[in-house]
Amino acid sequence: METRIGLLGLFFYYFVVISTVLNIISGEVQSYWEQPFAQPYFDNSTKREVTATVGQSALLHCRVRNLGDRAVSWIRKRDLHILTVGILTYTNDQRFQSLHTEGSDEWTLRITSPQPRDSGTYECQVSTEPKISQAFRLNVVVSKAKILGNSELFIKSGSDINLTCVALQSPAPPSFIYWYKGGRVVNYSQRGGISVLTERQTKTSKLVIARAMPSDSGNYTCSPSSSDSASVVVHVINGEQPAAMQHGNSSANSVLINNRSFSHRGHGPLDRWLAYLGGSKNLILSLASTGLCWLVKSISSPLGGSGR
């Protein structure tokens, strides 16, 4: 009997000791999670302002440490519309999607085919009490290509066609820049002397066609990936090059008039052009080598005196 009482007492003693230890551990664990550094917090190393082009997916990366059992939501700030909660989409606009890999700290909002109207502030929100959030700024731009120089070029036969294209407002270097003549990609094998130098970091591409021929005349288009294209019309002219066409440039106020119908007596199309444009103080006429047209430049008063 005494042995049994002794065993019960010993059991009770260890029970009290173990319970006390467990309570201490439980209290320490609870105290640990209540400490500020153990609460969810944002990793501020992520990019907070993102620029995307129309048609290319936009990604906003939110990184949350010590998330625990809390939920991450994405909110559109302008109308406080809840877009996603966890990995679920809470909007009818299915272009918005939350991306998350299990075990990862990163919650990414992906916007497929963004439009300029999608520009604005988006918040990554964590369901703590009180809630914590981090703001991200999205700028959606329209990237456009530009071919440097005039939209219409006149090149002397035998000279080089040299075109430079730049992708403007492109947040990232284009993955490619294609050149077209008409509706077809410029054919390098069709003739020699064609070269393209594309520099992705500067977002530029240069097309050079050596020793241009009249058959090289046409509409040339530069088309970078994720950018609107740009075009230029190139005229390759045989024989001597008129002064106004030097260096492949054409004046925006130049007019081509058929030489065969030209009249010095005031009844030809030149007089009609002068009357239409309002008379001429400086009239420069350059006869194209083909003899088929006159280039009329800087027209401002009727033909007369030194205006021939």
Which ranges are low-confidence, i.e. pLDDT below 50, for 5 or more consecutive residues?
Answer: 28-34, 241-308
CATH topology of one domain: Immunoglobulin-like
CATH class of one domain: Mainly Beta
Largest sheet: 6 strands, mixed
Count helical runs: 2
Estimated share of beta-strand residues: 35-45%
Helix/strand-derived category reads mainly beta
Protein name: Ig-like domain-containing protein
Task: Summarize the structure in short.
This protein is 14% helix and 39% strand. This is Ig-like domain-containing protein.
Note down, in words, how this protein is organized.
- 14% of the residues lie in helices and 39% in strands.
- By secondary structure, the chain is mainly beta.
- Among the domains are: 41-141, Immunoglobulin-like (Sandwich); 144-237, Immunoglobulins (Immunoglobulin-like, Sandwich).
- The strands form five sheets. The chain has a six-stranded mixed sheet with strand order 2-10-9-4-5-6, with no helix packed on it. It has a five-stranded mixed sheet with strand order 12-19-18-14-15, with no helix packed on it.
- It is elongated.
- Residues 28-34 and 241-308 have low confidence and may be disordered.
